[in-house]
Amino acid sequence: MGKRYLYGDAGLIEVLLPQFELMETAEGGYAAVYKDPLTNSFWLKYYATAAKQGGGYLTLMRLPAPSTEKLIDIAIGTIFEDEAVAAVLRLLDEEAIEKKDYRQLLIGKLEQAVEGAAIQAERVFKIIRFANLTDPMNKREVLGKSAAQVQEDAAYFQGIAERAERLLERYS
Predict the structure, then answer these.
(1) pTM
(2) Residues sharing a CB contact under 8 Å with residue 20, sequence separation 6 or more, in sequence order
(3) Whole-angstrom distance, CA of residue 91 vs CA of residue 83
(4) How does DSSP classify residue 65?
(5) Cα separation, 55 vs 3, whole angstroms
(6) How do residues 56-100 score in pLDDT, each as one tens digit?
(7) Pairing of strands 6-7, 21-25
(8) Which residue in 3, 34, 68, 132 could disulfide with 20, CB within 3.0 to 4.6 Å?
(9) Sheet-wide strand order for 21-25
(10) What is the chain's percent helix, strand, coil content, to nearest 5?
């Protein structure tokens, strides 16, 4: 399986899983841990909740889970389209569930990749679209915050959205 950290192609996942040893299944069967007997690596099969409309996006992720920075590097640099999508969906899940912020780092790395011509336009469009970077809506909790803090959060998301729009305009 080489250096892949994520699989997002359901057909490929279904081909890979019979080669693995099932270690543990979560209640309801929506997540399971597998061991690859060839590499002794562990893999989590789960459904990304960021893609809820169709019941979730089947994903296979190498454990331990990649860091936010690693997920961003995967989204930008992998040669596998399904891995890039799975990385972005994982970022969205971590933002929604664990309140992990990835937007500033992602937009910065996208800008660097564009400046260095290290990324194709199609990948830029997909990452920005899937990560919803052009949406200026404040995604942070507002309860218990002062008006100034809420305004600061709103300005953060607005700034990210503007930077994303500028990247898209470069390819328009």
Answers:
(1) 0.91
(2) 34, 35, 36, 37, 43
(3) 12
(4) P
(5) 28
(6) 889 999 999 999 999 999 999 999 999 999 999 999 999 988 999
(7) unpaired
(8) 34
(9) 6-7, 57-63, 41-48, 31-36, 21-25
(10) 55, 15, 30
